[in-house]
Amino acid sequence: MSKIEQIITEIEEYIDSCSYMPLSTTTIKVNKDDIDELLSELRLRTPDEIKKYQKIIANRDEILNDAKERSEAMISEATAHINELVSEHEIMQKAYDEANNIIEQAQREANQVLESANNEASDLRMRAMQYTDDILANVQNILTNGMNNFASAQESLMGSLDNSLNVVLDSRKELSPQPEEEVYEDSATIDVEE
User: Which of 68, 57, 55 lies closest to 114, judged by CA?
Assistant: First the structure.
């Protein structure tokens, strides 16, 4: 498991460990410092992972250079072999044909090694890019969900505060005196006493 995958797992575990907001089963409370620390760690680790895949791609050049050196060595060996055969006059034509075959075979093998190295390096590069893109997409989803949860929590809090304010206002209305009702009650009392 890569460092980035470890950090993403830690972020997911941290989010799972957070408590829910009151009266909610989807909105959670997140400690800003904790999530900032995890995201900072992710930012620091991402370039390291990318460098790691760049090294893999750089190995392609080493493979190509190795293949080139081997092909040159084979050609050099074939050339030396040709020179030895040519020095013997009686088998000159045979040596020439054999040397050409060796050179052609060496070139074919060198081309196969180069083609294989190019294909492998290209495949590694594509996998590294796909892997990095998958990680970044996962981080994007986590951040988007966090932002949505925060907006939902804020909206829920505002709704709760608004309801509380309405209860306070209604309670205050009930507590304040009603002038018309008091006058009516006084006149009814006077009628009864007379």
Answer: 68
> Helices (DSSP H) in the chain: which residue ranges?
3-17, 32-87, 92-175, 179-193
Spell out the residues 6+ positions from residue 89 whose beta carbon is closer than 8 angstroms to its own: none
In this prediction, residue 180 carries a pLDDT of: 56
CB-neighbour burial class of residue 150 (10 A; exposed 0-12, middle 13-18, buried 19+): middle
Distances (CA, A) of 91 to 85, 87, 88: 7, 9, 6
Report the candidate in 103, 104, 115, 105 with the shortest Cα–Cα distance to residue 67: 115
Q: What are phi and psi of 20, to 5 degrees?
A: -80, 155
pLDDT in tens, 68-96: 888 888 888 888 887 777 666 666 778 78
Q: What are phi and psi of 168, to 5 degrees?
A: -60, -45
**Inter-residue long-range contacts of 70-79, CB under 8 Å, 24+ positions, other chains counted:** 70/110, 70/113, 71/106, 71/107, 71/109, 71/110, 71/113, 71/114, 74/102, 74/106, 74/109, 74/110, 75/103, 75/106, 75/107, 77/102, 78/102, 78/103, 78/106, 79/103
Q: How far apart are CA 99 and CA 107, in angstroms?
A: 12
